[in-house]
Structure to design on (248 residues):
């Protein structure tokens, strides 16, 4: 018998299980990496389509409430002070130190803070000499002219000497309560008292112009320190509200 040699070329080869599994795993890993990269690209494209640029962070510092953003003609971004209109260039680090230093030294800001309007309740004066305890809304900022007028009324009401406004204790008290208080002289307060008298006289004439009948009484006043006597003429009348009024 003759032995036959098997044809190697015609014999089917068995697949290498280990190598096939390795190639399949590598293909799966490559597919996952590709999908991940595509997702990242898609996310970036989505952001570009929605905003075009990266969104800016919200400003959280309190200094930005007193500055406004201004774009100059050369494209530079600056912050403009709302008080003095001074423009400060913004740095790349987004630091606010230079803006805080400016607010601390800004003169117009200090003036604004000292003159901020407040709601205060003061007794309402109707001009007839009687102070009605009715609240009236007034501007709370300091006004030296009104303080001088009030000082003149105070001197006339209580017969204080004009020199009282020059006393050290009086000015110390006023300065303690109102740092903006300015010292005035006896000559100045005398002029203010005369001006208050003229204003009150005009008010009284305007009031009596609408009165049909008045009753006049006289009295004598004597100054204890100067021994001088004055005759006082008082007018009594009924106003439109049927209230009895009197005026010197």
């Amino acid at each position: 018998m003759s032995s036959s040699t098997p044809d190697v070329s015609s014999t089917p080869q068995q697949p290498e299980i280990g190598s096939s599994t390795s190639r399949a795993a590598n293909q799966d890993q490559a597919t996952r990496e590709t999908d991940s990269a595509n997702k990242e690209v898609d996310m970036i494209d989505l952001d570009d389509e929605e905003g075009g640029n990266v969104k800016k962070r919200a400003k959280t510092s309190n200094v930005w409430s007193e500055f406004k953003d201004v774009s100059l003609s050369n494209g530079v971004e600056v912050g403009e002070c709302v008080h003095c209109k001074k423009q400060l260039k913004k740095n790349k680090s987004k630091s606010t130190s230079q803006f805080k230093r400016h607010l601390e030294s800004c003169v117009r800001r200090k003036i604004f803070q000292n003159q901020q309007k407040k709601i205060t309740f003061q007794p309402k004066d109707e001009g007839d000499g009687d102070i009605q305890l009715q609240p009236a809304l007034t501007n709370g900022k300091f006004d030296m002219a009104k303080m001088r007028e009030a000082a003149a009324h105070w001197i006339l009401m209580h017969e204080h000497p004009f020199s009282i406004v020059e006393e050290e204790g009086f000015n110390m008290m006023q300065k303690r309560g109102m740092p903006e208080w300015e010292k005035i002289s006896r000559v100045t307060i005398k002029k203010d008292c005369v001006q208050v008298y003229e204003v009150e006289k005009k008010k009284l004439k305007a009031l009596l112009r609408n009165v049909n009948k008045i009753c006049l009484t006289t009295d004598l006043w004597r100054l204890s320190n100067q021994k001088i006597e004055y005759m006082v003429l008082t007018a009594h009348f009924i106003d439109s509200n049927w209230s009895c009024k009197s005026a010197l």
Summary: Residues 212-248 form one domain. The CA atoms of residues 19 and 25 lie 10 Å apart. The longest strand covers residues 229-238. Confidence is low (pLDDT under 50) at residues 1-6, 34-52, 126-134.
